[in-house]
Amino acid sequence: MSLAGSLMSQRLNEEEEANDEEDEIGETENRHDNINAGHPTPPRWWELPAETWMPAETWMPAEAWMPPTNLSQTTCNHKYCPGCLINFFEASITDESLFPPKCCGNAFPVEEHALGNELVERWRVKEVEYTTPNRTYCQVSTCSAFIPPSNINGDVGNCPVCWHSTCTHCKGPEHPSYACEQDQATQEVLRIAAENNWQRCPRCQSIIELNRGCYHITCRCRKQFCYLCLAKWKTCDCPRWSEGRLLAAGEGRLGRMAYRGNYNAVQENYNAYRGDWWNAYVR
User: Fold this and answer.
1) Cβ neighbours of 162 (radius 10 Å)
2) What sign does the CA torsion over 106, 107, 112, 115 have?
3) What's the pTM value of the predicted model, to 2 decimals?
4) Domain segments of the chain as ranges
5) SS3 for 135?
6) Mapping DSSP to helix (H, G, I), strand (E, B) and coil, where does residue 195 land?
7) Where is this region: Disordered (predicted)?
8) How many CB atoms lie within 10 A of CB 252?
9) Of the candidates 96, 127, 114, 101, the residue with the CA atom closest to the CA atom of residue 220
10) How many helices (H) and strands (E) does the chain have?
């Protein structure tokens, strides 16, 4: 047999062997399909079409499929499985607006047997940070760790991570108290606030000026209180609003509406002028 014939014969044999392997693989897959046909793997919920998702009103409560001893009950008598509870607490650690996790306005109980010691410890650290007014963070930019009140002595806070010192007034490096310009500026701002009867948030001590509207204040730290007496909102006998302030708020809203109306009219005139100019140009 010639060399060309030998090469052709070898190539045909290789192709036949490859076809035989493909046939064997196909038969194996068919056998697997037949075996799994009676026990198909259920699709995951995110793989299903949106219209087939289970509506919220048909969700199965945790107590229907989990032993009662594994559930945590809130003060409003709702029950949560450990997985959901852990997710709530983890989210509240990274997002202050979710702290503390609540159900029906009531904080979840902190249960170590459901959350685990490690998560509870991290949550307790954040609890100190989120509930501390006028917080101080390490002045070292590569650190910026929270300095708890227990690490603050007078006007100086010692970082528990890198042990650098931070001024609690200006939040900069430690320095003699008389040289703190921020402290002098703070005292001046407090003096102006007192002269104008501005209030300070009971939680974070931020200065709040109220010129119009009701006396219900929601601070940026999410504390809700009465602007008159600083008590928790809806726990005092102070009036909810002032007629004069409500009228001022209404007049301000009408003024903004009138401004927007005038602006829209000017914009329409400009668009009409631009259209006329363009039409004249293209002609």
Assistant:
1) 12
2) positive
3) 0.47
4) 57-130, 133-180
5) coil
6) helix
7) 1-46
8) 13
9) 96
10) 6, 13
Q: Is 17 exposed, middle or buried (CB count within 10 Å of its CB: 0-12, 13-18, 19+)?
A: exposed
Q: Is 163 left (phi over 0), alpha (psi -120 to 50) or beta?
A: left
Q: Which helix (H) or strand (E) holds 174?
A: none
Beta strands of the chain (E only): which ranges?
Answer: 72-73, 79-80, 102-103, 106-107, 136-137, 146-147, 152-153, 156-158, 165-167, 199-200, 207-208, 216-218, 224-226
pLDDT computed for residue 129 by the predictor: 92
Phi, psi of 243 (to 5 degrees): -60, -40
- Give the span between the Cα atoms of 16 and 283, in whole angstroms: 76
> What pLDDT, on the 0 to 100 scale, is given for residue 50?
44
Give Cα separations from 140 to 14, 130, 159, 173, 256 (angstroms).
69, 20, 9, 8, 44
Residues lower than pLDDT 70 in the chain: 1-70, 177-179, 181-184, 243-283
Q: Does domain 57-130 match CATH 1.10.1660?
A: no
Query: Over the stretch 71-92, which tens digit does the pLDDT of each residue have?
Result: 788 888 888 888 888 899 999 9
pLDDT at 206 (0 to 100): 81
Classify residue 26 as exposed, middle or buried by CB count within 10 Å of its CB (0-12, 13-18, 19+): exposed
Cα–Cα distance for residue pair 226/236, rounded to 1 Å: 8
